[in-house]
């Protein structure tokens, strides 16, 4: 029997042999000439010369053996729609969508920006792009117009695909006004917009630049579109991270390496096999959605359940009933959803027959102990935490149950995945930390298949951002802190940058600060994430006004708070609105002028700010403390 230790060592020491074997999991139209080209660090090219197609591997390849098996079960508790698509039906829908896109002159290498809610057409559109060799760039449907505009300008899409509206928690969100505004804000002029009409906001269909999807779908109902055979290293998609520095990073992914890595992860980590049913309540706008709603389950021949709605509507038992109804075997969501479910009537879970469920996977944020223990106890099934990033595309730390049943350790997602040459590095020296010592989680060159190739259109930024941050070493920085024990288990200790996670939504504190600063009354602002029992984190804003005396006048404080909330709403969306706004007359900073967000967050969470030798003015922290205490 192979052990994790042996397999892992082989994946690091003999990557060509290891990944060459893994590559047999997918279809290659033309075999690759070389497994790895590592001649130009930090860039890596996997399966050089091989030609393949993600859509072919996800759909067409299964037609011979499982055409009548469900490929997609679509459920919306917002609209009450439930639809099933076999692999044959999925194949037909993807061909229709691809034919429509082709009729709109979309071709290989073009970008297609997908701004869609969780509807089946979003999955068809992504696969249709893959089929044509077009590069999809999915933008999370909850983003406000300025976010969308920034991504339009960066991706320069030949086509935007959107819908009349999204729906969340019973509320309809009109998309077309957002798209309208983004198009007028963006410098780049998008030639055309394809509209999927859900009939949720019908009056919007009149906008002149929109092309309605439905009539075109009818026109191309029986269309057959050949798969474009792409060289393994051609780009398949661009997905933007949430962007702490204001300008988001477009993570660019390849074709062949991604397909191989996902297929391998389905066996090594998820233990999902053809015929299994996988339910990943996440969003297609996030990497988890790309990898584990769409590509991995379909490449491996599973049935994927795509869900629009919250975990608590119509009630907190809805997900568990789906598990029963569709005999779901694997489920993958974020800890925040579990914290929400924890507050529900336990009966709701117990009433459902969960016997089909084998494992619950959780990722995206730290899995706190109370949540982990509660869900484990309530489900009585393995709960597998796993750690990764948009950049890596698949879990870099997990328990590889498909290789060896390593025992889980509370507080750790597990051990490095195949091919991830992971080390903990001293922030100051770049040296490898001893076991038990906290360091930056770093990855050696080359990154394994499936990881980002570069930053879209900006190789320099890829190198400078990720590969130059650890001193004296050319290693990839995750910008997360971690610690590794003697057995190789890694615990994640938070991030070196400042992104917060509100109810599963990643928000850059820097972006919120920028929005607040645009208000004319604001001189300076700090936004920090503060632990919140339900949402994971909540944003607290500390605002320095240009004219602090204003606050003494009656009603001014309330008025300003409302205006600031409105400013954030219009620039970033309501999800980014700070839970609390505190007014202070100065902010604590380091000598180099960096805001001490971590110290502020500590105070807000009732902890001591710790060792702060570089603070210029302790008084500023005292102010923060006083403002928190006064509730204003
Ligand atoms: P940006 O890179 O623009 O700042 P982001 O890092 O918030 O955006 P993602 O790539 O979606 O966007 O998130 C990856 C991060 O989420 C990781 O770097 C880590 O901080 C956190 N994370 C993911 N999974 C886990 C986990 N299992 N435990 C702890 N933290 C996790
Ligand atoms: Mg990140």
What's the number of extended β-strand segments?
A: 32
Assigned CATH superfamily of the largest domain: ANL, N-terminal domain
What ranges have pLDDT less than 50 throughout 5 or more consecutive residues? none
CATH architecture of the largest domain: 3-Layer(aba) Sandwich
Q: What would the principal axes of the Cα set say about the shape?
A: globular
Overall helicity: 25-40%
CATH class descriptor of the largest domain:
Alpha Beta
The pLDDT mean sits at 91
Give the number of helices.
20
Tally of discrete structural domains: 2
Strand content: 15-25%
Main sheet? 7 strands, mixed
InterPro entries: ACAS_N (IPR032387), AMP-bd_C (IPR025110), AMP-bd_C_sf (IPR045851), AMP-binding_CS (IPR020845), AMP-dep_synth/lig_dom (IPR000873), ANL_N_sf (IPR042099), Propion_PrpE (IPR012694)
Keywords: ATP-binding, Ligase, Membrane, Nucleotide-binding, Transmembrane, Transmembrane helix
Pfam families: ACAS_N, AMP-binding, AMP-binding_C
Organism: Caballeronia telluris
Helices and strands in order:
Elements: H1 4-13, H2 15-22, E1 34-40, E2 43-48, E3 51-52, H3 54-58, H4 63-66, E4 70-76, E5 82-86, H5 87-103, E6 111-115, H6 120-132, E7 135-138, H7 145-155, E8 159-163, E9 165-168, E10 171-174, H8 176-185, E11 193-196, E12 210-212, H9 213-219, E13 230-231, E14 237-240, E15 250-253, H10 256-268, E16 277-279, H11 287-299, E17 303-308, H12 318-326, E18 330-333, H13 335-342, H14 346-350, E19 359-363, H15 369-379, E20 383-386, E21 397-398, E22 415-416, E23 422-425, E24 439-443, E25 454-455, H16 459-466, E26 476-484, E27 490-495, E28 499-502, E29 505-508, H17 509-517, E30 522-532, E31 536-545, H18 556-572, E32 580-584, H19 597-604, H20 618-630
Parallel strand pairs: 4-17, 6-7, 6-8, 8-11, 11-12, 16-17, 16-18, 18-19, 19-20, 31-32
Antiparallel strand pairs: 1-2, 3-13, 4-5, 9-10, 14-15, 15-25, 21-22, 23-24, 24-26, 26-27, 28-29, 30-31
Helix pairs in contact: 1-2, 5-6, 5-9, 7-8, 10-11, 13-15, 17-18, 19-20
This protein binds adenosine-5'-triphosphate and magnesium ion.
Magnesium ion binds next to loops.
């Amino acid at each position: 029997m192979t052990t994790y230790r042996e397999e892992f060592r082989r994946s690091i020491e003999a990557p060509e042999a290891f990944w060459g074997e893994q590559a047999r999991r997918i279809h290659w139209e033309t075999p690759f000439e070389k497994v790895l080209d590592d001649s130009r660090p930090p860039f890596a090219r996997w399966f050089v010369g091989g030609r393949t197609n993600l859509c072919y591997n996800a759909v067409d390849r299964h037609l011979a053996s499982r055409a009548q098996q469900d490929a997609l079960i679509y459920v919306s508790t917002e609209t009450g729609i439930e639809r099933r698509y076999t692999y044959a039906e999925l194949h037909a829908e993807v061909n229709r969508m691809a034919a429509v896109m082709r009729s709109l002159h979309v071709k290989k290498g073009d970008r297609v920006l997908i701004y869609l809610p969780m509807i089946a057409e979003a999955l068809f559109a992504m696969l249709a792009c893959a089929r044509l060799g077009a590069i999809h760039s999915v933008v999370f449907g909850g983003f406000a117009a300025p976010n969308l505009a920034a991504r339009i300008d960066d991706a320069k899409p030949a086509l935007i695909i959107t819908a009349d509206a999204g729906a969340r928690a019973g509320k309809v969100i009109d998309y077309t006004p957002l798209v309208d505004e983004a198009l007028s804000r963006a410098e780049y002029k998008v030639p055309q917009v394809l509209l999927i009409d859900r009939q949720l906001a019908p009056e919007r269909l009149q906008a002149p630049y929109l092309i309605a999807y439905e009539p075109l779908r009818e026109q191309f109902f029986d269309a057959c579109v050949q798969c474009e055979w792409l060289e393994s290293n051609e780009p398949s998609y661009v997905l933007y991270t949430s962007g702490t520095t204001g300008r988001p990073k477009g993570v660019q992914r390849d074709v062949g390496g991604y397909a191989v890595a996902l297929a391998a992860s389905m066996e090594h980590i998820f233990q999902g096999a053809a015929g299994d049913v996988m339910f990943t309540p996440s969003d297609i706008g996030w990497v988890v959605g790309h990898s584990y709603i769409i590509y991995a389950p379909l490449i491996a021949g599973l049935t994927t359940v795509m869900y629009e709605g919250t975990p608590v509507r119509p009630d907190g038992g809805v997900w568990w009933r789906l598990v029963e109804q569709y005999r779901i075997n694997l489920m993958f969501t974020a800890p925040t959803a579990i914290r929400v479910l924890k507050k529900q009537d336990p009966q709701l879970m117990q009433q459902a027959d969960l016997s089909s469920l084998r494992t619950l996977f959780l990722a995206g944020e730290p899995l706190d102990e109370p949540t982990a223990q509660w869900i484990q106890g309530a489900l009585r099934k393995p709960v597998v935490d796993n750690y990764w990033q948009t950049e890596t595309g698949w879990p870099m730390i997990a328990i590889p149950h498909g290789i060896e049943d390593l025992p889980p350790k509370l507080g750790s997602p597990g051990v490095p995945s195949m091919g991830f040459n992971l080390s903990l590095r001293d922030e100051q020296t770049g040296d490898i930390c001893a076991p038990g010592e906290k360091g930056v989680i770093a990855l050696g060159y080359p990154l394994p298949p499936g990881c980002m190739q570069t930053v879209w259109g900006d190789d320099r930024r890829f190198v400078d951002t990720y590969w130059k941050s650890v001193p004296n070493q050319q290693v990839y920085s995750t910008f997360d802190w971690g610690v590794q024990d003697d057995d190789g288990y890694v615990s994640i200790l938070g991030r070196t940058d400042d992104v917060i996670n509100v109810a599963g939504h990643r928000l850059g504190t820097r972006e919120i600060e920028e929005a607040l600063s645009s208000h004319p009354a604001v001189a300076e602002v700090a936004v920090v994430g503060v632990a919140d029992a339900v949402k994971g984190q909540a944003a607290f804003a500390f605002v320095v006004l240009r004219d602090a005396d204003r606050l003494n006048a009656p009603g001014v404080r309330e008025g300003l708070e409302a205006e600031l909330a409105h400013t954030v709403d219009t620039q970033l969306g309501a999800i980014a609105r700070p839970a609390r706004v505190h007014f202070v007359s100065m902010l604590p900073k380091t000598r180099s002028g960096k805001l001490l967000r971590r110290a502020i967050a500590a105070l807000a969470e009732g902890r001591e700010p710790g060792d702060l030798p570089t603070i210029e003015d302790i008084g500023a922290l005292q102010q923060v403390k006083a403002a928190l205490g006064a509730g204003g």
